[in-house]
């Protein structure tokens, strides 16, 4: 019995030492991101479960409280976020083809739209606060009518779920901001392609979470 | 398992005087600076960082347990105040579960061995791996701060609304510590899954993987899918304490049972995070010390995956007496019974491997045998508490305490120690003193049984867990248990001492002291930074001991291999 071995092939500098080649590296990063997104599903799952249970138990209060949310702003924000995802796809595509101009433009739009979403969200929070509908940490809760406890619960869940979602967006924006800075500082965009691709997966995921949050909180 | 190279080494380990020397260049002498350790991306060094840290936490958790056992010597609880007692058993539980058992084998042996066993140069994401250690230490710091500042008294289970509303102890600091540490186990699990999928050496197909890898894979699945649910449960407890959101507090419309569901959705599978890696270790040790193929490789491999899958479907058996629907109770009881099937498959297969094997009782094997026996006891008593009617009697009694200590200490810790001894020569390049090691393995086995067997009886007789003061009729059994704990403590103290001793004075280990199959034994002891000089190509099944021994025998006769 003899020993067979594979010679080490020399590494291009973009491939980390533990990988054999760029394909293995790309596949590993992509799988890693998918697994991370699974953990995110489980994390948000706990919040959705709490929402589902208490909505089932206190339907009337949840429905009444839900009507206090601004459907127009919610719809507008949904459109903004979905559009930002579209430009994320364009950015990933441009990075793959080493097209710096389109990459920078698409990524800027993604970041701009994401930021706009957060600003509108913040304005919504502010309006709710003005109307005494932010019962967090002892802030006043002005609720006339029945089902006060359930409405209180609805708003608490609303803030928890949307703030956790917004936090994920902030993290995503920060990462995309780094790529943008790198691309404008003469880093070849094709070197960013793999990272932009997996960050895109994350961005779309955060988008999808909102697609579930929006109808649950604003519409039904 | 793979390419066998008996011609490189004599078949019989040479006598003491022979000039075995450590390899000139290996991962331990690649750098001596503090920086070369704290910023290392080498999975082997990170494994050692984890080894030191979890040992530290094991000692802290063990001290808390010692005081608890000392206090329970008398029915009145003469040693500490009741408040202190509550904080002590909480500290013991929190530290042992989250800072010792969960990371133990995966973060130490898994980090060290996964790349070596699959012929890779490192894990897929070395930076994430280092990050996981820092995250773990940060979480540990929060928890230690809580402990030093005054402790926490909720029990390791943090049941709401006591934890979320009433307890006036350092719940937040502890909760933040556990929340943060959770991410270290998510990162470890993610890293292992990707590494096992994408980094295997050429020819190393799934059915040739060592069973330790299969068990690490199953463990990682639970870590990745379960831990986030614990994170959200703790997050909600924190939000309720700080902002008064009504999730668990009935006054605000919440439901404390929801906490129990969320908590056990992680914490029951977490039991399998603790035991599956030990099962993997035992699956490596048993065939090596029987010189046989493992019996039923495929069954053992898939039973690991089956345990991971079932583990997510049984959490409701912790809620039998919490007012859960009786129909839910029936289903959870049935599902809990079904976990016994893959567990029993493993035990039967290990036993069948022993059958007609040429068994040698070296220290790792002693631990493995101890594991099989104690795990079987822990598993069978698990069936008692999984039965609806019986659980009403046994719930929250010492029977449960004994049951899960048989799994977590008798199972997980025995497996961990067995693994540490088995791979010690690989990790350090030194052999530990066999006589002392056997003595301590035996001490631990008897000390363990004396500690926890009386607790089965205590629970059966009705002594509730977590009680500080108990009726005098239970004293004899409690004293027995405390006496056992002191033997156990001595048993644990030995390895702590002689393993450190062996680092300096132990005999230099050959690269394959146990004549074991497996890629990790083809690397030098200790391995080089890049693990293998050349990427190995695997052409054989794992655990082909008969063929391996035949090669050794030929080499001993001086015949060409």
What tags apply to this protein structure?
heterodimer, A: 220 residues, mainly alpha, 1% strand, B: 561 residues, Cytochrome C Oxidase, Chain A, 17 helices, globular, disordered N terminus
Summary of the model, kept short:
Chain A has 220 residues and is an all-alpha fold.
What does this protein structure show overall?
- The complex is a heterodimer of chains A (220) and B (561).
- Chain A has 220 residues and is an all-alpha fold.
- Chain A has one domain (40-219): Four Helix Bundle (Hemerythrin (Met), subunit A) (Up-down Bundle).
- Chain A has helices at 22-57, 59-66, 71-96, 100-130, 148-184, 189-219, and one strand spanning 5-6.
- In chain A, helix 3 (71-96) packs antiparallel against helix 6.
- The longest helix of chain A is centred in the C-terminal third of the chain and has 37 residues, at 148-184.
- By secondary structure, chain B is mainly α.
- Chain B has a single domain (45-554), classed as Up-down Bundle (Cytochrome C Oxidase, Chain A), CATH 1.20.210.10.
- Helices cover 66% and strands 0% of the residues of chain B.
- Chain B has helices spanning 34-38, 43-71, 82-101, 104-117, 126-149, 162-166, 171-198, 211-243, 256-290, 297-311, 326-354, 363-386, 388-394, 398-428, 434-461, 475-505, 545-556; one strand spanning 535-536.
- In chain B, helix 7 (171-198) runs antiparallel to helix 8 and helix 10 (297-311) runs antiparallel to helix 11 (326-354).
- Chain B is globular.
- Chains A and B meet through strand 1, helix 1 and helix 5 of A and helix 7, helix 8 and strand 1 of B.
Helix content estimate of chain A: over 70%
Oligomer: heterodimer
CATH hierarchy class name of chain A: Mainly Alpha
Structural class of chain B: mainly alpha
Topology:
The complex is a heterodimer of chains A (220) and B (561).
Chain A: E1 5-6, H1 22-57, H2 59-66, H3 71-96, H4 100-130, H5 148-184, H6 189-219
Chain B: H1 34-38, H2 43-71, H3 82-101, H4 104-117, H5 126-149, H6 162-166, H7 171-198, H8 211-243, H9 256-290, H10 297-311, H11 326-354, H12 363-386, H13 388-394, H14 398-428, H15 434-461, H16 475-505, E1 535-536, H17 545-556
Helix pairs in contact in B: 2-3, 2-4, 2-5, 2-16, 3-5, 4-7, 4-8, 4-14, 5-7, 7-8, 8-9, 8-10, 9-10, 9-11, 9-12, 9-14, 10-11, 11-12, 12-14, 12-15, 14-15, 15-16
